[in-house]
Amino acid sequence: RAAVQACGLSLFPKIDAKHEYATTVTAAAYPEGVKDDDVRGAVKKLGITIAGGQDHLKGKIFRIGTMGAVSAPEILATLAATQHGLVKAGWKIKGNGVEAAAEVLG
pTM (2 decimals)? Predict the structure, then answer.
């Protein structure tokens, strides 16, 4: 979550009395003008898969799973690939999400 926020993206869902963040996945809303296919395609070219939104959220969010035997190197590699995908899709990253995550994980 620290990485998403450092990049200037919004976490999904919005937290309220009925919604909270999952412990096994981090979801983020795409900024205006950034296309899901462009981001996930660039990430996939690096050999990493992130999930898109389903149903009414298709093309609006992406999801990074952290379930199972996932450690810092896998998380940081996925975040680096995702940042790369966002930049390739035209998003100007606000901060370094990989660095923010490393601080939390380290």
Answer: 0.92
In angstroms, the CA 90 to CA 93 distance is 9
Q: Degrees (nearest 5) of the Cα angle 95, 101, 104?
A: 125
Half-sphere exposure of 94 (CA within 13 A, CB side): 11
Residue type, 55: D
The CB density around residue 13, as the number of other CB atoms within 10 Å, is 15
Instruction: Determine the pLDDT at residue 32.
Output: 92
> Smallest Cα–Cα separation from 53: which of 74, 30, 76?
30
**What average pLDDT does the segment 60-82 reach?**
95
